[in-house]
């Protein structure tokens, strides 16, 4: 007798983490993996390099895959090792994979529903900001398309999903060319931009609605400070800057977040939280 689909299909989470001089992404990945285990009850595989693995390990990932880090990317604050995400398809040991950024705060079981969406590949196409409801959606450039987000991706081992990741590799290797086409600054490679272009190419420059996670990706922006109350409840403090007509005055606004996932753009704050 054949096995059921549930028995055949393995599910798990995949994290890429390469330490830079400024941030310890391996430590961030450990904190995120623990929350994945707790809220989603999924195994976690980490993709990292030899230099990022600490000499003393207090958390054991289900799988540790070592690769050679591409250290050619930079941001205004220094080295940013985010290239190579296209390897996710080949490296994932799972039939169905939840690919997350390490600074994503898993705070509920909602991401489990992405495994049930009627598609073999999905990501976020819309965003919201905590305390900043008027923030506009990001675009590749003023005359190009809306940006997709590589922060959360769910994919299955299918030919189309494989083609998307292969196309992402091609876009990464030719990022300046696509920057010229779409009119964005190409000095720093961004997976969000690469994913946006790769999915459009693979899908014949169409936008299949099933490829989008049906809720907004929630960001905690750089002007929002997050404080932990307990394992699934956080307080936020948002600094509102006034214009010069108000003589430079500032205002503080506050909110409590509970049972809600969010992406922390202020990585220093994320590091503070996981050290608590």
Report what the structure shows:
By secondary structure, this protein is of the alpha/beta class. The chain has 2 domains: 213 residues, Spore Coat Polysaccharide Biosynthesis Protein SpsA, Chain A (Alpha-Beta Complex), CATH 3.90.550; 56 residues, no CATH class. 25% of the residues lie in helices and 26% in strands. It is built from 7 helices and 15 strands. It has a 6-stranded mixed beta sheet. The longest helix has 16 residues. It is globular. The protein starts with a helix and ends with a helix.
For the biggest β-sheet, the strand order reads: 3-2-1-6-10-8
Number of structural units classed as domains: 2
Query: Quick one: how many beta strands?
Result: 15
Mean pLDDT: 91
CATH hierarchy: architecture of the largest domain:
Alpha-Beta Complex
The span between the termini is 51 Å
Number of helices: 7
CATH C-level of the largest domain: Alpha Beta
User: Which structural class do you get from the secondary structure elements?
Assistant: alpha/beta
Rg over alpha carbons: 19 Å
Question: What is the helical fraction, as a range of percent?
Answer: 10-25%
Largest sheet: 6 strands, mixed
Q: Strand share of the residues?
A: 25-35%
Show unreliable segments.
Answer: none
Shape: globular
N to C succession of SSEs: HEHEEEEHEEEEEHHHEEEEEH
What fold name goes in the CATH topology slot of the largest domain? Spore Coat Polysaccharide Biosynthesis Protein SpsA, Chain A
């Amino acid at each position: 007798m054949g096995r059921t689909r549930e028995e055949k299909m393995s599910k798990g989470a995949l994290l890429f983490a390469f330490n830079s001089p400024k941030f310890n992404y391996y430590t961030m990945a450990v904190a995120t993996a623990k929350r994945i285990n707790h809220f989603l009850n999924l195994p976690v595989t980490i993709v990292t390099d030899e230099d990022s693995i600490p000499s003393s390990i207090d958390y054991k990932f289900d799988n540790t895959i070592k690769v050679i880090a591409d250290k050619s990317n930079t941001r205004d604050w220094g080295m940013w090792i985010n290239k190579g995400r296209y390897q996710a398809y080949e490296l994932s040991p799972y039939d169905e994979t939840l690919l997350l950024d390490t600074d994503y705060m898993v705070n509920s079981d909602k991401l489990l529903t992405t495994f049930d969406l009627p598609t073999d590949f999905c990501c976020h196409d819309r965003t919201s900001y905590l305390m900043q409801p008027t923030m506009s959606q990001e675009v590749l450039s003023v005359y190009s398309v809306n940006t997709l987000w590589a922060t959360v991706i769910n994919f299955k081992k299918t030919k189309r999903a494989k083609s998307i990741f292969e196309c992402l590799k091609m876009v990464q290797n030719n990022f300046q060319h696509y920057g010229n086409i779409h009119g964005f600054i190409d000095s720093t490679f961004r997976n969000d931009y690469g994913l946006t272009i790769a999915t459009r190419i693979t899908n014949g420059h169409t936008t299949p609605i099933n490829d989008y996670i049906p809720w907004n990706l929630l960001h905690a922006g750089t002007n929002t400070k997050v404080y932990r109350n307990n394992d699934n409840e956080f307080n936020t403090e948002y600094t509102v800057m006034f214009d010069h007509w108000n003589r430079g005055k500032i205002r503080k606004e506050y909110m409590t977040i509970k049972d809600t996932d969010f992406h922390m753009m202020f990585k220093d704050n994320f590091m503070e939280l996981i050290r608590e």
